[in-house]
Design goal:
Blueprint lengths: L4 H16 L8 E7 L4 E4 L15 E4 L4 E3 L8 H10 L5 E5 L2 H9 L8 H6 L12 H20 L9 E4 L3 E6 L2 H24 L8 H11 L26 H8 L9
Antiparallel strand pairs: 1-2, 1-5, 2-3, 3-4, 5-7, 6-7
Helix pairs in contact: 1-6, 2-5, 3-6
């Protein structure tokens, strides 16, 4: 059995953060991480309550979908995670939740526009909604097809500029340079969605944040000129506050060099 000790620890910590951040109900969510050198993803097992989850419960899966470590079945969203890792070689962690406000936008089929600086700190672009799956796609491989439409929604903008996509009628998927960074994106996304919904309730005609303010806030936290945080530049893909990984997390996704776990 593969050990992947450091990666398992990081994926466990990230999964346990989901209920702490109020992002999951029951077992409705999962986090994965990948060791790029080994070509192995580690993901939460299907249906295991978070309060009972242990590192040894996590499942190791090769990029071709073969389960190569673990005694439990992997998450039912495994093929979606794998599709994202195959398409985006710079990401190192993926999160899926059914967090209330982000899922409400997904169910409404509405993108989340950049209404304020909280959103701009995460991304200078709206959070897109993927296209609907066809009947043939659902029948032919639902989870992999879900990954395909998420990748399509990102398009040539790349996963660093579009760190999350809403699967229509389903919920949000988010990613980052490592599992922890991906969870920070998911947590920030949920807050951004909640703020957007409240804003529209108060003022339905609210317009988007001016482009020059959006650009300023995004640049303060991401890229070589970032000024947010302590040491090494900005916060990276950590979202709003959080623990912050520095600009290296964003730069890693941008360059296509995701962080990795230990060798197996």
């Amino acid at each position: 059995m593969l050990e992947l000790t450091e990666l398992r620890a990081a994926v466990l910590e990230a999964n346990l953060a989901l209920p702490r951040y109020g992002l999951v109900t029951l077992t409705w969510g999962n986090v994965s991480g990948i060791d790029r050198a080994a070509g192995v993803m580690v993901i939460k097992p299907s249906g295991v309550p978070y309060e009972r989850l242990r590192a040894e419960d996590l499942v190791a899966v090769a990029l071709d979908g073969t389960v190569i470590g673990g005694r439990l079945r992997p998450s039912s969203d495994t093929d979606t995670h794998l599709q994202l890792y195959r398409a985006f070689p710079g990401i190192g962690g993926v999160v899926h939740t059914h967090s209330t406000h982000a899922t409400a936008f997904a169910q409404a089929g509405r993108e989340i526009p950049v209404l304020g600086t909280t959103h701009a700190d995460l991304s200078a672009l709206p959070v897109p909604v993927a296209r609907a799956l066809t009947e043939a796609e659902v029948a032919g491989g639902y989870e992999e097809a879900t990954g395909t439409i998420l990748v399509e929604a990102v398009g040539d903008r790349g996963p660093a500029r579009v760190p999350a996509v809403l699967a229509p009628g389903h919920g949000p998927f988010a990613w980052g340079a490592d599992p922890h960074g991906a969870v920070e994106v998911a947590a920030t996304l949920e807050e951004v969605a909640r703020m957007a919904l409240l804003t529209y309730q108060l003022a339905p005609g609210t317009g988007v944040l001016p482009a020059h303010v959006t650009a300023k806030h995004f640049s303060r936290k991401h890229g070589p000129g970032a000024t947010y945080g302590q040491g090494g530049g900005g916060q990276g893909r950590g979202g709003q506050g959080g623990v912050g990984r520095g600009s290296s997390a964003h730069d890693s996704v941008e360059r296509g060099g995701a962080t990795r776990g230990d060798r197996w």
